[in-house]
Amino acid sequence: MDKLRALHYFVVAAEEGSFSATARRFEVSVPAVTKMIGALERELGARLLDRSTHGLRLTARGEAYREMCAPLLAQLEQADKLVSDQTAARARTLVVGVPPLLSRTVLVPALPAFRERFAHVQIELRTVNHLTVTDAEARGMDVLVALGWPGALDFIQVPLAQSRLIVCASPAYWRQHPPPRHPAELQAHACVLVRSPEGTVLDLWRHHRGDQVETVTVRGWLTCGSRDDALQAVLHGQGVGRFADLSVWHLVREGRLEPVLMDWDSVDSPPFHALVRPDARRDRDVQGFVAFLARLLQGLEAECTVAVGPRTPTERPDWYGKGVGRASTRGA
Fold it and tell me: Do 116 and 63 share a domain, yes or no?
């Protein structure tokens, strides 16, 4: 007889007043429970539970026995938890893929807060510019932080926050060029364009205000293969850019970027997701890191919402994930 298991069954049966409820608690059959408790009673030579159509009731000896056993089982559970926690807290490395702009401006400055609670976790950050990573790359990461609309990657998707695309330039640029009051006026400005990893030049900037939708094909003399380069060009006064507010909000706070057209919202604002490998979804450290990301980005989202207005989830645009070409030629 497995006496430890029999003791667990007995204490829970006394608590539940039912063999069937005990069986459900331990995910075993009712006969397994009755057999184990019966064997315990035979070993002790005493009846511990009175059975009746109304359920189970402790006998006098059963009550005394339960009072002695329950604290011992609780103490054993605490010992198991202590050892389990210590085992779970062994040093390990968490591999996280992050877009470079978000990593540098938002995540890295906040990592000490995660480190305070998960001192045993070492972080390895890997740059991920897009979601079309290879299967081999994906398998090597515990968490992917995605800005955009995740495709067919075999990852569990956890929504983190909703961005709002904002049109902005440096104060020096706006001193030399009158800020637009309507999206159509962007055509008179040098806009710094970004080419997606798939090869699409993102030159179609769509805005809406109430029921009014304005689609503008913007032009500029500079097209960048990364949002990092585009941001540096805009900061140096080389034109107007469009960025997710959560990624550049610290620059707006510092006065290095000045947003315009704040009474217009972007139609194509991308969401942030955490993508978790299916085999890692129950990992405590992975769960802790995803929760940390959610608090970080949702706090920033709340701050941006107060300053630039509410944001609404948007559908994946037609040009997203397509190949070489221009978003303006693919339509909305």
Answer: no
Query: Could you say which of 87, 111, 140 is where a domain stops?
Result: 87
Cβ-in-10-Å burial (0-12, 13-18, 19+) of 119 comes to: exposed
**210 and 324 fall within a common domain:** yes
Strand duo 265-266 + 204-209: pairing? antiparallel
Q: Which domain holds residue 291?
A: 92-162+272-301
Do 204 and 322 belong together in one domain?
A: yes
Verify that 172 and 46 share a domain, yes or no.
Answer: no
CATH of the domain at 223: 3.40.190.290
Q: Which pairs with CB-CB distance under 8 Å and at least 24 residues apart come from 147-152?
A: 147/99, 147/102, 147/244, 147/247, 147/270, 147/271, 147/272, 148/270, 148/271, 148/320, 149/270, 149/271, 149/316, 149/320, 149/321, 150/273, 150/275, 151/321
Measured CA to CA, the distance from residue 164 to residue 271 in angstroms comes to: 9
Same structural domain, 187 and 320? yes
Per-residue pLDDT of the chain (332 residues; tens, 9 = 90+): 588 888 888 888 888 888 888 888 887 888 888 888 888 888 888 888 888 888 888 888 888 888 888 888 888 888 777 766 655 556 788 999 888 878 888 899 999 999 988 989 999 998 876 655 554 455 678 888 888 777 656 678 888 888 888 999 999 999 999 999 999 999 999 999 998 777 788 888 989 888 888 999 999 999 998 888 999 999 999 999 999 888 888 899 999 999 999 999 888 888 888 888 777 778 889 999 999 999 999 998 888 888 777 776 666 666 555 556 777 776 54
In sequence order, the 6+-apart residues with CB closer than 8 A to the CB of 284 are 88
**Domain shared by 295 and 245, yes or no:** no
Where a domain ends, among 66, 87, 108?
Answer: 87
Candidates 174, 322, 317, 177; CA nearest to 258 is: 174
Contact by Cβ (8 Å): 180, 131? no
Instruction: Kindly state whether residues 43 and 61 are assigned to the same domain.
Output: yes
- 80 & 131 share domain: no
